[in-house]
Amino acid sequence: MAAAHVPSIRHRFAEVDGVRIFYRESGADNAPALLLLHGFPSASHQFRRLMDALGDRYRIIAPDYPGFGHTETPDGFEYTFERLTDIVEGLLDRIGLDRFVLYAFDFGGPVGMRLAARRPGRIAGLIVQNANAYDEGLSDLARATIANMPGVPGAEDNVRGLFELPVTRGQYEGGTTDAELVAPDGWTLDQHFLDLPGRKDAQVRLALDYHSNLALYPVWQQWFRAHRPPALVLWGRNDAFFLEPGAHAYTRDLPDAAVHIFDTGHFALEEKLPEIVPLIADFLESVYPPVRIAVIGATGNLGGAVSRAALARGLEVTPLDSGTVDVTDADSVAAAVAGHDAVVVAVKGADRLVPRGALALLDALPAAGVDRLVFLGGGGSLEYAPGQRFVDSPNFPAEYLETARDQGEALEILRAGGSAVRWSYVSPPPVHLVPGAATGAYRAEARDTPLTDAEGESRISVGDYAEAILDALRDDAFIGERFTVAY
């Protein structure tokens, strides 16, 4: 059967400052992240096809702002761009999205640039799609609309006309070269939300606040210059509000930004998604270079768990077993792991295979140009008292004795030093490494004794054990140390 990679997309709510904010999410929690910020008059539904295209490789979060889509806002909410940003920022804190590529479209520009200015360390890269940050990007129509602000006679009446179906539909179809490629679902759903009680009043407040964004253009431009995020600029040149010069202006402060102009209108993804997705995919891969991991012992229980967890994070995995590599032969190992960023080893066998493998790995990895190793050892070499290993206790199960001693010897070989390999040796609890999925609620420490809970028990699921190994690789943690994992 042909492989088809279609992500599952979850539809969730989170409570932030009294706002029940709706968001769509795809991908593993630990996968590289992409935050999609929608425009006016739409909501996160505008990104459904983009999430289908990319959601199997990345953690994608797409929220609906207050006043948009499925988000529920309490009476008295203050509709300003600052408050929209507060709520989105609160959502990111709530779900633990600490670093991401920011995709900013239209209103996503004012929200996203505020986020970036507040917390610049969060931004791994920037994708701009018809989100203006420069004076030359404003059309006469945009300037006339923005001139409606509090205190201007007739301002509210002037902007209310923007929230009716002909305008909503026109934003989708205007400027396109083939309107048949634009699904009617988008503007139909947008108008449904606009017609809900109180929504047009919310949009009036935001329209009258839009001038506040222009005042921040110099701040955002300074952020570009100071932080120089990797940037991709995508622009529909026939946008009635944001002109093509606004796209090229980004290169003034981000000279390495890639700018791509499309012969379409404001909602460029609607008509040009097939051309745009490869550009986004290539950009994301450049921001998040694929981590290549060779897993020796990938057909075993633990090696297989690590392989599956790594694939779920979007890492590249080369599964290796005894049929493809001889772990005790340095030349065989070097040939198999060359070109990888790290090697994870989960092996056992007779005739001291584990310690002989440790020796071969320390020779092979430098020859292959790989400096990172995580060696999955047993829990038998952990100590139940100072200097007293579980494997040496009289009650240690006889069927595991040979493997446990071999794994303990492998640890001694790694600790003896003399190699350029940056190794970590991970031990599970000595008894309770149990079947089960990852929960993310584990502890990991560099130590020679088991981690225990309040009842003195040391336990971990196979799923969390695998995640701890990948987290140690991601964080470059426990270099030259044995660590153990438990709840």
Using only C-alpha atoms, the radius of gyration works out to 27 Å
Q: In terms of per-residue confidence, which ranges show pLDDT below 50 for 5 or more consecutive residues?
A: none
Number of distinct beta strands: 19
What does the average pLDDT come to?
A: 95
What is the 3D form?
elongated
The span between the termini is 40 Å
Description:
- There is one protein chain.
- The protein is of the alpha/beta class.
- 38% of the residues lie in helices and 20% in strands.
- The strands form four sheets. An eight-stranded mixed β-sheet has the order 1-2-4-3-5-6-7-8, sandwiched between helices.
- A hairpin with a 2-residue loop joins β1 (9-16) and β2 (19-26).
- α2 (81-95) packs across α3, α14 (301-312) crosses α18 (462-474) and α15 packs across α16 (353-368).
- The longest helix has 20 residues, at 268-287.
- The mean pLDDT is 95.
List keywords for this structure.
alpha/beta, 18 helices, 487 residues, 38% helix, seven-stranded mixed sheet, elongated
Q: Topology, please?
A:
Blueprint: E1 9-16, E2 19-26, E3 33-37, H1 48-54, E4 59-63, H2 81-95, E5 100-105, H3 108-118, E6 123-129, H4 140-146, H5 155-160, H6 165-173, H7 185-194, H8 199-209, H9 211-215, H10 217-227, E7 231-236, H11 245-248, H12 250-253, E8 258-262, H13 268-287, E9 292-296, H14 301-312, E10 316-320, H15 330-337, E11 342-345, H16 353-368, E12 372-376, E13 383-385, E14 388-389, H17 401-415, E15 422-427, E16 432-434, E17 443-446, E18 459-461, H18 462-474, E19 481-486
Parallel strand pairs: 3-4, 3-5, 5-6, 6-7, 7-8, 9-10, 9-11, 11-12, 12-15, 15-19, 16-18
Antiparallel strand pairs: 1-2, 2-4, 13-14, 17-19
Helix pairs in contact: 1-13, 2-3, 6-7, 14-18, 15-16, 16-17
